[in-house]
Amino acid sequence: MKKIISIRNVVLSTIISLAGVMYCLPANAATSLQADGLLYHKKYQAAFDIYMEAAKIGDAEAQYQLGVIHLKGLGQSINNFKAIIWFSLAAEHKHKNAQQIYDQLLNDISAKDKALVLSSISQFQQRFGLASIKEKHFPKLITDHVNEVIRYGEQQLIYPQSSLSDITYSFSDISTDTDAELGYNDDFGDDEFGDDDFGDDPAIASLGNKLQEASISSLVADFDIAQDGSLRHGEVKRAIGDERFAMYNLHTNPMPSPEFNQQPSHFIHRAYQGISTYDRKRVRQEFPYIYQMARLQVRRLKNSDQAGHQYKLALLYMYFPWLEAEDEQINKLLTLAAKGGQVNAQYELGLKLYREQTDIRQATYWLSKAASRGLMQAEYRLGQLLLSSPWIEKDENKALLWLEKSAQQNHIAAIKKAAELRLLAENKELHNFEQAMKLLAQIEGEELQPDYLYLRAVAHKDSPTDRRLDLAVKNIRQAIALGNDYGWDVSGWKKDLANWTRTSVTITDID
């Protein structure tokens, strides 16, 4: 009897302590990707704190590693009951060998005590398990919409991934005879949170260097497409040449307006310029050495079963379409890498499936996986989908969670969108002027896009302590002028300006 009471007390105290920690953890700007590095370098407590935060939003890797930490006593006391709880949560995601470890730990418990342990695990899963986490934090699909597609313009066309290259503009003269120094945005860099993860591969990095040395321009960039067709929030995936001029050209040349069921809709787009738009014949004729180098890297990577190599090969195929890989082959490589735990591959696969409208369910799944691992691009994208995707139920609360997590990592578009919700959300319970100002202060002096200027205008107008209508009018006029230059629909802002100036208060217009 004493043993049963002892087991019961241990189990109950474990459940209570875990539940308390899960509810009370503060927001942490660090991600579980960073915790992986901390764990590797034996900084166990720092890793533990970050994993606990990540586990709250359903990061299966964080849950798995918490199981390992408690099982092995890495910076924490050995506690098999806590370990079995975390492995049970990771097993719900079918993550690694969590189910096998869970089964082994369960088998070590006597038949007499097993019922109590299973009951306690079930209670914890009901509150913090996969179903509960999905309901609290992740997108819910509108099932009636998943087979519908977004179309563009009067002809109602569905654009595939790379079919809009004719809208893009050249941003540097292509010449193999000049030694002009070109700026190189190194997305072949060594940043764990970057898009390419080519930095640990000198052979592939040398391809980028050769492109630069030959003064060959190249740009691959992702954009949000607003309801008016304007391109917003551009993120450079890789660039060789002066990307600023290229991005400006793209920003100031709207696309046809996207429509869903004949209603204006938001969407996403990937733009290509330079050598990324050439066909195989042109590259072989004009840049034979570059072509051979690229083919060499393909041969080197294509037989590898490593997730990182599969991801890199998929990127080569996507960034250089003249390598002429089948789309099915690219999807297979990304899927293998994503299932192998490559978080950038999870994001890239989800974005590709969404952008091409081929599988919205899987797109949402993989974007959610990448976001739960703390990839800031995925966190931003998930927040945006929760606000504007025609396939997903709108949820400002969930969106704000992901946008603010991304904003903690200084993702500029996420900062602006989170600030917008704090000022203008339909759900007024989300309004928080002080938090909005903190967000905008993160990019003060760095960001002069129309939407930032508009948010500054709203902040000046609605400040509870320092209302400045003169500055509000100045900022909104600047936003309207710049928005016009970019081809944005600013009719709503013009109405706001008219309403703001239709007041008895004298306004000093500062130009």
From TrEMBL:
<feature type="signal peptide">
    <location>
        <begin position="1"/>
        <end position="29"/>
    </location>
</feature>
<dbReference type="InterPro" id="IPR050767">
    <property type="entry name" value="Sel1_AlgK"/>
</dbReference>
<protein>
    <recommendedName>
        <fullName>Sel1 repeat family protein</fullName>
    </recommendedName>
</protein>
<keyword id="KW-0732">Signal</keyword>
<dbReference type="Pfam" id="PF08238">
    <property type="entry name" value="Sel1"/>
</dbReference>
<dbReference type="InterPro" id="IPR011990">
    <property type="entry name" value="TPR-like_helical_dom_sf"/>
</dbReference>
<dbReference type="InterPro" id="IPR006597">
    <property type="entry name" value="Sel1-like"/>
</dbReference>
